Amino acid sequence: MAGVWPPGGAGRGVTRAMGESRTIAAAWPSAAGRLAWVGMLAFTLAACSGLAPDGGGGSGTAFYGTSEGGESTSDTAGSRPDMIQKPTMADLMKAGPLGDRVLGRADAPVTVIEYASLTCPYSRAFHVETWPAFRKAYIDTGKVRFILREFPIGRSSGNAWIINRCFEGEAYFDLYDRFLRKQHLWVSQKVRLDAIFAVAKEMGMTRKQFDSCLANQAIIDHIKWVKQRGRRLGVTGTPTFFIGERKERSVLTLAQLAAIIEPMLAARGRTASAAR
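-> structure tokens emitted (276 positions)
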């Protein structure tokens, strides 16, 4: 597929948020980095709400620009006329034009969908604090099928997600990991394409491939579709999870995930036993 790298790759409340911010700020590697993060705190908290406009003009420029901002939209979680009030699994499983990025068995008994923004400190917190143990306990064991969907908040996240989509298979998730863990190197209130490229370069991407990827209209249209579809499903910020049909917007711990998933697994087991 044109623009895909590497070639041949396989297919809250404010109180809680402020409490989590101390843990997130502590993860930044230097005092200067932590101070910069604190200076951005109000900005990032607003960005993670997902209700601010995303910026851009026509379809080909939706994520481009040198300052954070948003597309012209006034929708909120409760005011969209096309809002799907109680999404079913059929609603949730409708993938974007380029399909979903998936980990785990296709026939796993439980499906977990995450909507994430690459600039959101809370998406990062889940990925750093919970993801490794969650993947080992549930995805790698065949209990959960995991779907990651792009929900860019701001132009920096939009541009980074375009680049991330140019990678396939495990490389897609590897770059996702790098973007989140290295937020302090590329996230700011200005879009820094050189800094985004520096992260992608670690995965073997050249500048020519980077620039070509940014101009990939099919990927731009896909990400816009996924975000708008997410809004219809009630996604108002990141990270947002659908565990089966249950929606959770929080930095979930492994224990919290287990409390939701284990009863689902038990119910599937009882259904399977009864069918024999």
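The longest helix spans residues 254-275.
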